[in-house]
């Protein structure tokens, strides 16, 4: 091999990696463009859409979904899925509300209690998927119904009323700083910290390696089971936090208030560019996906469009995102093979 050829190899590999980064960065930019077009069209039809209250409502409605999307994206990156998050949100929201309604507890206690329940649910999912090697779809579908049933058993048809909750918790869910809701600040902080961790720490990059090829990651010395367990634990923690945020946001809560949200969360993640087959995507894209879906829902309400079309558009976006992921994956793989042949 000549000196020139030897020097070209790393350049080719760096170029291939830059190509992959560029493709998926463009995916996130396309979401921003879609959001801009959607907001512009809706504002032209209804100028009040971008009023201060309208923007605040969008941020509040997005915060919980985006927080769940951050946790779900970490799981999906490892080539797994967590369908139990909606049920965990409901269980945490009701049980935490029951705890606070009994009196003598503050916001900090609610946060610790809710996060602990979510962590326990995530730990169960992670142990069954990583160490017992039960398929993630089966495990989380099972825990979805188990947690859902547990929530209904505890509730016994009762509901939590906002009047029974401490004012500090309700302030957390409906107030903010300089017009930015506290819930949005919490979500943005979690997103930024998670994104930085995934990109900057070896254990974070291990999650991408696991999603790309679990067997290759294992041969490379990555503790695959521990990484998958950690991903589920993290998703459970954020689901617990989202449950407390749900309680703070709405105040009045019945058993299983977030029924069906697990599919909405998965849709936000996939629309945001996190490949359902694992190994690709960012939490920033997942949050943008959540913001896009929430804005579509708000726009349809403002435009007085039947709610059926929101579900239809969500499904169409999901199918489109999966199709785009597949097409991009095939094209990127083809380009990488060509570069490998050229520089190999």
UniProtKB/TrEMBL annotation:
Q: Does the keyword Transmembrane apply?
A: yes
Q: CDD domains annotated for this entry?
A: TM_PBP1_transp_AraH_like
Q: Could you list the residue ranges that cross the membrane?
A: 29-46, 58-76, 107-129, 136-156, 176-198, 228-248, 260-277, 284-303, 309-329
Provide the protein name. Answer: Autoinducer 2 import system permease protein LsrC
Where is this gene product found? Cell membrane
- Function in brief: Part of the ABC transporter complex LsrABCD involved in autoinducer 2 (AI-2) import. Probably responsible for the translocation of the substrate across the membrane.
What membrane topology is given?
Multi-pass membrane protein
Subunit comment for this entry? Answer: The complex is composed of two ATP-binding proteins (LsrA), two transmembrane proteins (LsrC and LsrD) and a solute-binding protein (LsrB).
- Asked if the record carries the keyword DNA repair, the reply is no
**Alphabetical UniProt keywords:** Cell inner membrane, Cell membrane, Membrane, Transmembrane, Transmembrane helix, Transport
